[in-house]
Amino acid sequence: MQPPTILIVDDEQLIRWSLASRLSDEGYRIVEAATAADAIARHSEGVDLVLLDYRLPDGDGIDVLKRIKAADPETLVIMLTAHSTIELAVEAMKQGAYHYANKPFNLDEIAMLVEKALETTRLRREVRTLRTSQAQPYDIERMIGESDAMRATRALLRKVATSPASTVLLTGESGTGKDLAAKAIHYASDRATRPFMNITCSALPENLLESELFGHERGAFTGADRQKRGLFEMADSGTVFLDEIGEMVPVLQAKLLRFLEEKTFKRVGGAADIRVDVRVIAATNRQLEDEVRAGKFREDLYYRLNVLPILLIPLRERAVDIPLLLHYYIDTYNREFKKRVKGVSGDVLGRLQTYGWPGNVRELRNAVERAMLLGEGEQLTAEDFPMLTRTRGALTEGIELPANGIDLETLERALVVQALERSGWNQTRAAALLGLNRDQIRYRIDKFKLERTPA
Length: 455
Hints:
Elements: E1 5-9, H1 13-25, E2 29-33, H2 36-43, E3 49-53, E4 55-56, E5 59-60, H3 61-71, E6 76-81, H4 86-94, E7 99-102, H5 107-135, H6 148-162, E8 167-171, H7 178-187, E9 196-200, H8 206-214, H9 231-234, E10 239-243, H10 250-262, E11 264-265, E12 274-275, E13 279-284, H11 288-293, H12 299-305, E14 309-311, H13 322-337, E15 343-344, H14 348-354, H15 360-374, E16 379-380, H16 386-396, H17 408-422, H18 427-434, H19 438-447
Parallel strand pairs: 1-2, 1-3, 3-6, 6-7, 8-13, 8-14, 9-10, 10-13, 15-16
Antiparallel strand pairs: 4-5, 11-12
Helix pairs in contact: 1-5, 2-3, 6-7, 13-15, 17-18, 18-19
């Protein structure tokens, strides 16, 4: 590995020589410059750290610092000066200096300061590398699908990611990949290097969810034996993903609305306002418009969240993407399970494309995982996908056309009513039971003039 490169900028040759001798003994590569112009030129060749004198023959060290930071914000700069003042120190730090040292200086102290600075650089690079590796699986361009719907979704995600909007609402059926879309937005934004925090609103009772989101002070409630920072506080400058936002109770909806409007919140049991900069991505598989009409979701919060809505299309409406997804999951589980499955046999692919996939991409992934675990051959068969054989049997078993025939429209109406009642009048779920999309079931609700009977 190449040793770190240190640029020493000073117009006094003796100072450059003493610093170069001491630091080269530590194993660093040294380059030197006696003027501001030389410093800028040598920096452009690539250095890890700059020791920069404040007074140079052809310029001011602060001006050189500004130009170095403009060219590469990651370069660490230690200012050297024989005329130290508080004003100079403050200005140097304001312009991005890592530290400053007074002349005459102790070479051992300079060596320790350099070591500490380079360790900071190393840690920053490791964190950046780690975050880059974490972001790769969520690259928008890696989202699988070449259907028109998927292309449009990727384009919208890119626009939303680079927008300044502080709220995004992801909607769609369960299993369509709302969590993946949330991470894709985060890692494609200028918040990518900051935290991504997520929570499922239905997973915790009201008091615990409030504490998880906003934090609490010591003694705020029984068991609160210490102060705790909440997700919004820990995600400052980053993203908070609120999954299943439709399950949030009204009291917390009001507190969330206040936070979105004012960018401030109070910890549970606290009195001080805490201000943070957070993008909130909310997701739901519910029809929030219906929840608003039913009085279960605040209308003002709905409109505040719905600034940038993104509907994730169900898998059955982009069946052309199923072969790509199938190939991806087969490759994934071949590596994980050390198998050599080549694909699916016979008419299985066509049947997979016509299957309704009520669980969407998540169901497809789980189905392939099960098939790969239990399948024996190099080709997956229909028997490896139980929902295919179960569906085919269910469609014909026990059904017999009456001798005097049937009224198909009456039968259709009865099935739509059953699906709505079974799903609690959740139109998305009812549509999934019937293999329809939301527009299709809404058309039938209007067609048959169906209305929910009050309980």
